[in-house]
Amino acid sequence: MFLTLVIFIDIMKEIILILILLCSCTADDSVHFSRNFSPVNAYVKEVIDGDTYVVDINGSEKHVRVLGIDYPDISDDRIDNFIDLSVKKSRIKSCYDNGKKELVKILVGKNVTLNADKLAPDRDVYNRLLRYVNINGTDIGLLLLNNGYARFLNDNEIQCSRCIKYLESYNKVKDSKTGCLWDN
Hints:
Layout: H1 2-24, H2 27-30, E1 40-49, E2 52-57, E3 60-66, E4 69-70, H3 80-83, H4 89-107, E5 111-115, E6 129-135, E7 138-139, H5 140-146, E8 151-152, H6 163-175
Parallel strand pairs: 3-6
Antiparallel strand pairs: 1-2, 1-5, 2-3, 4-8, 5-6, 6-7
Helix pairs in contact: 5-6
């Protein structure tokens, strides 16, 4: 009898534990999330730097990081990421400023189209949406590469369907020494 009671108590403990776990799940935990790869319209509120923008998507403010490119960061602890390309700090800072001014004119206060990429993660480590940004049919990542304001993002963790095209554009501009960062 005592053994039966001990087994019954153990079974009840397991049932209670299972019930607690089930009750602690929220609706979001039980729903499978699938990404939307349809183009999304957004309103650009701010250009933080060349590859990061604040946008409004249906009344919700989001930070977007342009996929496939790396725009110079001129903070003291990160500018060295571009100096390794044999570009002087003064040129990096000048291109940063000129490119940002151009982007503000092109993007701020305008509607853009954001496209997710099936090969890339949805968000980066800073929780920014990773997207291609297009305005009136112009690919902003490609525009920045072609004008020498950015370089191809050589990050093995982030793959993208436009990476080959972006890399070719980057190499062409760099090798021909055209565009802001490379112009002699």
